[in-house]
Task: structure prediction
Amino acid sequence: MKMLNGYYEAEIVAARVGASKMGFITSPDGDGYVGDGEQEDTFNPTMNAQAGVFEQLPAGMEFTSFDPTHPTSAFEPFTTSVLRSIASGLNISYHALSNDLTSVNYSSIRQGALEDRSMYQVYQQFVIDHFINPIFKSWLEMAISTGYINLPIGKFDKFARSINFIPRSFAWIDPLKEMQSNILGLQNGTITYSDISAAYGRDTEELFEQHQKEVELAKQYGIEIAYQPFGTKLPVEANIQGGDEEDA
Result:
């Protein structure tokens, strides 16, 4: 990345120089040239490279232009190739690293996003296991030992193991299909409410608590909610026992 940044900087400088007046002042017989020795002031005629400026040359002098053609036509494919190599080394897709979506379609960006999210989840779990969780255990031990939390030290292992860290979630590209897939997963028993809540960065208990609060709030204001979360309640068939015998 540092080398690529240096290349960007060099290309920008070269492009600015190419867009400005740049060249050499020459004379037919070479008069006035004293070389490029160590003397600071050689009295050679010089001019600054500026855009849109023309100057009068000394008598007998000619201007030979110096025109660096930058950026070259190979600039974009070269930088793209370098970024692809860097993205491959970081285990992420090229468009996620460069924000370049010019050559992607729905299928390719979907596949790339899925692979990126899988790698992000690995990084998230690594941070939880090796950074966040050890800090939490150290804090919990200190809090119990100093009496900040009124718990016996024998309960440390229980509470240390019961903690659940929920990292950042990633929304699906097609939300409707994601919801339908979650419903089928719940009906077939392949996923749970906790799995779905974690996928949205939520805690199941907090989600149920929030639903309960909203239902109670709606009843308080006399509002009938037009939807039924967590599935539709099916009608219960009447269980009539001995009706015919009593009538007889």
Remarks:
- Confidence is low (pLDDT under 50) at residues 33-39.
- The chain has nine helices and two strands.
